[in-house]
Amino acid sequence: FHEDVKARGVLIVVEGLDRAGKTVQCQLLLDALQQRGHQVKYIKFPDRNSLTGKIINGYLQGQAQQDDHSIHLLFSANRWEAAQRIRSDLSNGITIIVDRYSYSGAVYSAAKENPDLSLEWAWQPEVGLPRPDLLLFLSISSEETAKRGGYGEERYETDAMQSKVRHLFERLLSMNHGHDVHLIDARFPVDQVAKELLNSTLGHLSERKPLETFAKLR
Ligand code: Z5A
Protein backbone atom coordinates (compact mmCIF):
# COMPACT_ATOMS: atom_id res chain seq x y z
CA PHE A 1 0.00 0.00 0.00
CA HIS A 2 2.85 2.34 -0.68
CA GLU A 3 1.45 3.06 -4.12
CA ASP A 4 -0.48 6.10 -2.95
CA VAL A 5 2.73 7.73 -1.64
CA LYS A 6 3.33 10.52 -4.14
CA ALA A 7 6.80 10.46 -5.69
CA ARG A 8 8.66 13.67 -4.96
CA GLY A 9 10.82 15.47 -7.47
CA VAL A 10 14.50 14.62 -7.70
CA LEU A 11 17.28 17.04 -6.82
CA ILE A 12 19.99 16.85 -9.48
CA VAL A 13 23.15 18.95 -9.21
CA VAL A 14 25.56 19.57 -12.09
CA GLU A 15 29.06 20.67 -11.08
CA GLY A 16 32.44 21.14 -12.72
CA LEU A 17 35.17 23.63 -13.55
CA ASP A 18 34.46 26.90 -15.35
CA ARG A 19 33.53 26.26 -19.00
CA ALA A 20 33.06 22.55 -18.38
CA GLY A 21 29.71 22.98 -20.15
CA LYS A 22 27.39 22.96 -17.13
CA THR A 23 24.86 25.50 -18.42
CA VAL A 24 24.68 24.00 -21.92
CA GLN A 25 24.23 20.50 -20.44
CA CYS A 26 21.65 21.56 -17.84
CA GLN A 27 19.54 23.06 -20.63
CA LEU A 28 19.75 19.90 -22.75
CA LEU A 29 18.88 17.72 -19.76
CA LEU A 30 15.93 19.98 -18.93
CA ASP A 31 14.61 19.66 -22.51
CA ALA A 32 15.14 15.89 -22.61
CA LEU A 33 13.32 15.31 -19.31
CA GLN A 34 10.47 17.65 -20.21
CA GLN A 35 10.05 15.85 -23.54
CA ARG A 36 9.65 12.64 -21.55
CA GLY A 37 6.79 14.23 -19.64
CA HIS A 38 8.57 15.09 -16.39
CA GLN A 39 7.89 18.29 -14.51
CA VAL A 40 11.35 19.88 -14.31
CA LYS A 41 12.84 23.22 -13.32
CA TYR A 42 16.32 24.65 -13.83
CA ILE A 43 18.02 26.87 -11.26
CA LYS A 44 21.54 28.27 -11.10
CA PHE A 45 23.85 29.42 -8.33
CA PRO A 46 24.83 32.09 -7.77
CA ASP A 47 21.37 33.50 -8.50
CA ARG A 48 22.59 36.95 -9.50
CA ASN A 49 19.12 38.52 -9.31
CA SER A 50 18.48 38.16 -5.59
CA LEU A 51 19.63 40.65 -2.97
CA THR A 52 22.81 38.71 -2.18
CA GLY A 53 23.18 37.86 -5.88
CA LYS A 54 23.61 41.50 -6.83
CA ILE A 55 26.51 41.89 -4.38
CA ILE A 56 28.03 38.62 -5.60
CA ASN A 57 27.75 39.74 -9.22
CA GLY A 58 29.60 43.01 -8.48
CA TYR A 59 32.32 41.05 -6.71
CA LEU A 60 32.74 38.48 -9.51
CA GLN A 61 32.98 41.23 -12.09
CA GLY A 62 35.69 42.96 -10.07
CA GLN A 63 33.60 46.05 -9.32
CA ALA A 64 33.78 45.58 -5.54
CA GLN A 65 36.18 44.02 -3.04
CA GLN A 66 34.99 41.73 -0.25
CA ASP A 67 36.60 39.92 2.64
CA ASP A 68 37.04 36.22 1.69
CA HIS A 69 34.83 35.01 4.56
CA SER A 70 32.18 37.60 3.96
CA ILE A 71 31.76 36.80 0.25
CA HIS A 72 31.83 33.10 1.07
CA LEU A 73 28.92 33.48 3.46
CA LEU A 74 27.01 35.54 0.91
CA PHE A 75 27.35 32.73 -1.67
CA SER A 76 25.98 30.35 0.96
CA ALA A 77 23.17 32.76 1.90
CA ASN A 78 22.31 32.90 -1.80
CA ARG A 79 21.53 29.16 -1.60
CA TRP A 80 19.69 29.41 1.72
CA GLU A 81 17.44 32.07 0.17
CA ALA A 82 16.31 29.40 -2.31
CA ALA A 83 16.16 26.42 0.05
CA GLN A 84 12.49 26.64 1.03
CA ARG A 85 11.42 26.97 -2.59
CA ILE A 86 13.50 23.95 -3.55
CA ARG A 87 11.88 21.88 -0.81
CA SER A 88 8.36 22.86 -1.76
CA ASP A 89 8.92 22.26 -5.49
CA LEU A 90 10.40 18.82 -4.80
CA SER A 91 7.50 17.88 -2.57
CA ASN A 92 5.11 18.97 -5.32
CA GLY A 93 6.71 16.43 -7.65
CA ILE A 94 8.93 18.86 -9.55
CA THR A 95 12.45 17.68 -10.39
CA ILE A 96 15.10 20.39 -10.11
CA ILE A 97 18.32 20.65 -12.09
CA VAL A 98 20.81 22.83 -10.23
CA ASP A 99 23.73 24.47 -12.08
CA ARG A 100 26.48 24.71 -9.38
CA TYR A 101 25.71 24.26 -5.69
CA SER A 102 27.45 23.87 -2.33
CA TYR A 103 30.42 22.02 -3.85
CA SER A 104 31.40 25.09 -5.89
CA GLY A 105 30.69 27.16 -2.81
CA ALA A 106 33.24 25.30 -0.73
CA VAL A 107 35.99 24.74 -3.28
CA TYR A 108 36.25 28.23 -4.81
CA SER A 109 36.61 29.81 -1.38
CA ALA A 110 39.06 27.18 -0.09
CA ALA A 111 41.13 27.58 -3.29
CA LYS A 112 42.05 31.09 -2.18
CA GLU A 113 44.40 29.48 0.32
CA ASN A 114 43.49 31.91 3.05
CA PRO A 115 44.89 30.14 6.15
CA ASP A 116 41.66 30.85 8.06
CA LEU A 117 39.44 29.45 5.33
CA SER A 118 39.85 25.70 5.05
CA LEU A 119 37.60 23.37 3.06
CA GLU A 120 36.03 22.25 6.35
CA TRP A 121 35.31 25.86 7.39
CA ALA A 122 33.91 26.60 3.96
CA TRP A 123 31.57 23.58 4.05
CA GLN A 124 30.07 24.41 7.43
CA PRO A 125 27.40 26.94 6.29
CA GLU A 126 26.13 24.36 3.77
CA VAL A 127 25.19 21.94 6.57
CA GLY A 128 21.40 21.62 6.59
CA LEU A 129 20.79 22.54 2.95
CA PRO A 130 18.90 19.98 0.82
CA ARG A 131 21.30 17.26 -0.25
CA PRO A 132 21.06 16.28 -3.93
CA ASP A 133 19.90 12.80 -4.88
CA LEU A 134 22.33 12.81 -7.77
CA LEU A 135 25.53 14.76 -8.41
CA LEU A 136 26.71 14.88 -12.01
CA PHE A 137 30.30 16.11 -12.15
CA LEU A 138 31.57 17.25 -15.55
CA SER A 139 35.17 16.18 -15.50
CA ILE A 140 37.65 18.05 -17.71
CA SER A 141 41.11 19.60 -17.32
CA SER A 142 41.63 23.35 -16.99
CA GLU A 143 43.82 23.23 -20.15
CA GLU A 144 40.84 21.93 -22.15
CA THR A 145 38.35 24.42 -20.73
CA ALA A 146 40.73 27.32 -21.39
CA LYS A 147 40.23 26.65 -25.13
CA ARG A 148 36.49 27.30 -24.85
CA GLY A 149 34.70 30.62 -25.39
CA GLY A 150 34.45 33.42 -22.84
CA TYR A 151 37.26 32.24 -20.58
CA GLY A 152 39.16 34.82 -18.56
CA GLU A 153 36.52 37.49 -18.10
CA GLU A 154 35.69 37.08 -14.39
CA ARG A 155 37.48 36.78 -11.09
CA TYR A 156 38.73 33.17 -10.47
CA GLU A 157 39.14 32.49 -14.21
CA THR A 158 42.90 32.02 -14.08
CA ASP A 159 44.88 28.82 -14.66
CA ALA A 160 46.32 28.81 -11.14
CA MET A 161 42.89 29.18 -9.53
CA GLN A 162 41.27 26.57 -11.81
CA SER A 163 43.84 23.90 -11.03
CA LYS A 164 43.47 24.44 -7.26
CA VAL A 165 39.70 24.27 -7.72
CA ARG A 166 40.05 20.97 -9.59
CA HIS A 167 42.10 19.40 -6.77
CA LEU A 168 39.69 20.61 -4.14
CA PHE A 169 36.71 19.23 -6.07
CA GLU A 170 38.49 15.86 -6.11
CA ARG A 171 39.07 16.06 -2.35
CA LEU A 172 35.51 17.07 -1.61
CA LEU A 173 34.00 14.38 -3.84
CA SER A 174 36.20 11.69 -2.29
CA MET A 175 34.57 12.38 1.08
CA ASN A 176 31.46 10.31 1.50
CA HIS A 177 28.33 12.42 1.14
CA GLY A 178 26.06 9.40 0.94
CA HIS A 179 24.59 10.18 -2.46
CA ASP A 180 25.23 9.12 -5.99
CA VAL A 181 28.11 10.86 -7.75
CA HIS A 182 28.55 10.31 -11.48
CA LEU A 183 31.76 11.50 -13.13
CA ILE A 184 31.00 12.50 -16.70
CA ASP A 185 33.84 12.91 -19.19
CA ALA A 186 33.17 16.42 -20.47
CA ARG A 187 35.89 16.56 -23.15
CA PHE A 188 33.62 15.09 -25.81
CA PRO A 189 31.21 16.93 -28.15
CA VAL A 190 28.11 18.45 -26.56
CA ASP A 191 25.65 15.78 -27.82
CA GLN A 192 27.78 12.92 -26.60
CA VAL A 193 28.14 14.42 -23.12
CA ALA A 194 24.39 15.09 -23.07
CA LYS A 195 23.62 11.40 -23.72
CA GLU A 196 25.78 10.38 -20.79
CA LEU A 197 24.08 12.86 -18.49
CA LEU A 198 20.65 11.66 -19.53
CA ASN A 199 21.59 8.00 -19.03
CA SER A 200 22.93 8.75 -15.56
CA THR A 201 19.72 10.58 -14.70
CA LEU A 202 17.05 8.22 -16.02
CA GLY A 203 17.57 5.62 -13.30
CA HIS A 204 16.89 8.21 -10.59
CA LEU A 205 13.59 9.66 -11.62
CA SER A 206 11.21 8.04 -9.19
CA GLU A 207 12.43 9.02 -5.77
CA ARG A 208 10.30 8.06 -2.79
CA LYS A 209 12.75 8.31 0.08
CA PRO A 210 12.71 11.53 2.09
CA LEU A 211 14.90 14.41 1.03
CA GLU A 212 18.08 14.53 3.11
CA THR A 213 20.27 17.43 4.15
CA PHE A 214 24.02 18.03 4.04
CA ALA A 215 25.99 16.90 7.08
CA LYS A 216 29.34 18.09 8.42
CA LEU A 217 32.43 16.93 6.53
CA ARG A 218 33.99 13.81 8.01
N1 Z5A B 1 31.21 30.46 -7.25
C1 Z5A B 1 31.70 30.61 -5.95
O1 Z5A B 1 32.81 31.12 -5.75
N2 Z5A B 1 30.95 30.21 -4.89
C2 Z5A B 1 29.72 29.65 -5.07
O2 Z5A B 1 29.05 29.30 -4.09
C3 Z5A B 1 29.23 29.48 -6.42
C4 Z5A B 1 30.00 29.90 -7.48
C5 Z5A B 1 27.88 28.85 -6.65
C6 Z5A B 1 30.58 32.23 -11.40
O3 Z5A B 1 29.81 31.07 -11.52
C7 Z5A B 1 31.69 32.01 -10.43
O4 Z5A B 1 31.20 31.89 -9.10
C8 Z5A B 1 32.45 30.73 -10.68
C9 Z5A B 1 32.38 29.95 -9.38
C10 Z5A B 1 32.01 30.97 -8.37
N3 Z5A B 1 33.84 30.99 -10.91
N4 Z5A B 1 34.32 31.64 -11.77
N5 Z5A B 1 34.81 32.30 -12.51
P1 Z5A B 1 28.84 30.87 -12.75
O5 Z5A B 1 28.26 29.50 -12.67
O6 Z5A B 1 27.92 32.04 -12.82
O7 Z5A B 1 29.90 30.88 -13.97
P2 Z5A B 1 29.60 31.05 -15.47
O8 Z5A B 1 30.68 31.92 -15.93
O9 Z5A B 1 28.21 31.44 -15.77
O10 Z5A B 1 29.64 29.58 -16.03
P3 Z5A B 1 30.86 28.64 -16.20
O11 Z5A B 1 30.91 27.74 -15.04
O12 Z5A B 1 32.09 29.40 -16.47
O13 Z5A B 1 30.54 27.84 -17.54
P4 Z5A B 1 29.70 26.48 -17.77
O14 Z5A B 1 28.28 26.71 -17.38
O15 Z5A B 1 30.38 25.30 -17.17
O16 Z5A B 1 29.86 26.29 -19.33
P5 Z5A B 1 28.86 26.71 -20.53
O17 Z5A B 1 28.40 28.15 -20.33
O18 Z5A B 1 27.83 25.70 -20.69
O19 Z5A B 1 29.88 26.61 -21.75
C11 Z5A B 1 31.01 27.44 -21.82
C12 Z5A B 1 31.55 27.51 -23.27
O20 Z5A B 1 32.03 26.24 -23.68
C13 Z5A B 1 30.48 27.92 -24.29
O21 Z5A B 1 31.09 28.70 -25.27
C14 Z5A B 1 30.04 26.56 -24.85
O22 Z5A B 1 29.52 26.68 -26.13
C15 Z5A B 1 31.33 25.78 -24.82
N6 Z5A B 1 31.12 24.33 -24.66
C16 Z5A B 1 30.28 23.72 -23.77
N7 Z5A B 1 30.34 22.37 -23.89
C17 Z5A B 1 31.25 22.12 -24.86
C18 Z5A B 1 31.77 20.90 -25.44
N8 Z5A B 1 31.34 19.68 -25.02
N9 Z5A B 1 32.71 21.02 -26.39
C19 Z5A B 1 33.13 22.24 -26.82
N10 Z5A B 1 32.68 23.44 -26.32
C20 Z5A B 1 31.76 23.37 -25.36
Automatic annotation (TrEMBL):
Q: Where is the Thymidylate kinase-like domain?
A: 14-196
Pfam families the UniProt entry points to: Thymidylate_kin (PF02223)
Q: In which pathway does it act?
A: Pyrimidine metabolism; dTTP biosynthesis
| A cellular component term, taken from the record's GO annotations | nucleus
Q: What is the enzyme's class at the highest EC level? A: transferase
At the top level, the lineage of the source is Eukaryota
Sorted UniProt keywords? ATP-binding, Kinase, Nucleotide biosynthesis, Nucleotide-binding, Transferase
| Cross-referenced PROSITE patterns | THYMIDYLATE_KINASE
CDD domains xrefs: TMPK (cd01672)
Q: What is its EC number?
A: 2.7.4.9
GO MF annotations in UniProt: ATP binding; dTMP kinase activity; nucleoside diphosphate kinase activity
GO annotations under biological process?
dTDP biosynthetic process; dTTP biosynthetic process; dUDP biosynthetic process
* Family annotation (PANTHER family): THYMIDYLATE KINASE
The family annotation for this protein states: Belongs to the thymidylate kinase family.
Q: Which NCBIfam families does this entry report, sorted A to Z?
A: DTMP_kinase (TIGR00041)
Q: Output this protein's name.
A: Thymidylate kinase
